[in-house]
Design goal:
The chain is of the alpha/beta class and about 160 residues long. Helix content is about 55%, strand content about 15%. About 35% of the residues are buried.
C-alpha cells in the first residue's frame, strides 16, 4: 500500500515538474528571440491521454499569455499518443505549419517521430515521455527516464527492507 501511495505521489510530482520545466523552457526561449515564434505541440488532445495533453495545452497557453507577453504562436495537434498518427502530425507541423520547435508528450510517439523532426532540423522537447532511449535520439526531455526512476525505486525498496 505504501508503494502505491508513493507511486501516485511520484506521478504527481513528475507531472508538475515536467510542466514547470516546459514553462521555463518557453520563457527562456522568449528571452533569446524577439520575434513571434510558431511552436508545434503534438499531444493527446482526445482519447485516454487527453487529460495530460489538455493540461499541457492549458499550461503553455497560460505561460504564453501571462508570462511571455504572447510571443508565441502555438499549433496544437492531436496525436492521440499513437505512433502512426504522430508521424502524420509531425509532417504537418513541419511542412504546413513551419514549426521549428515542437513539444511532444508520449514516449512511443516521441520515439516514432524523432527521426522525422531531426531530419527537418526541428528542436524537440519531450515533456512527459519516459523511455530511456529518448535522450539518445537527440530529443530534449523534462521528465526522468524510466531507467533513472527504476534505479531510484529499487534503491528505495532496498533501503526499506
Amino acid at each position: 500500500m505504501i508503494l502505491l501511495i508513493q507511486t501516485k505521489n511520484m506521478a504527481s510530482i513528475k507531472k508538475s515538474t515536467s510542466l514547470c520545466l516546459a514553462i521555463m523552457t518557453l520563457l527562456f526561449a522568449g528571452i533569446v528571440c524577439a520575434e513571434t515564434r510558431r511552436i508545434g505541440v503534438s499531444a493527446p488532445l482526445s482519447g485516454p491521454g487527453a487529460r495530460w495533453g489538455n493540461d499541457l495545452k492549458n499550461v503553455l497557453m497560460f505561460a504564453n499569455d501571462k508570462l511571455a507577453d504572447g510571443k508565441y504562436s502555438f499549433v496544437f495537434e492531436d496525436d492521440r499518443c499513437d505512433p502512426k498518427t504522430s508521424i502524420s502530425v509531425a509532417r504537418k507541423l513541419i511542412t504546413l505549419d513551419h514549426a521549428k520547435e515542437v513539444f511532444v508528450m508520449c514516449g512511443q510517439t516521441t520515439i516514432a517521430t524523432a527521426k522525422v523532426y531531426r531530419d527537418a532540423n526541428v528542436t524537440v522537447m519531450a515533456t512527459l515521455a519516459t523511455p530511456s532511449r529518448i535522450s539518445e535520439l537527440g530529443v530534449f526531455r523534462t521528465g526522468l527516464s524510466d531507467s533513472f526512476a527504476a534505479d531510484k525505486l529499487a534503491s528505495y525498496i532496498l533501503s526499506a527492507v
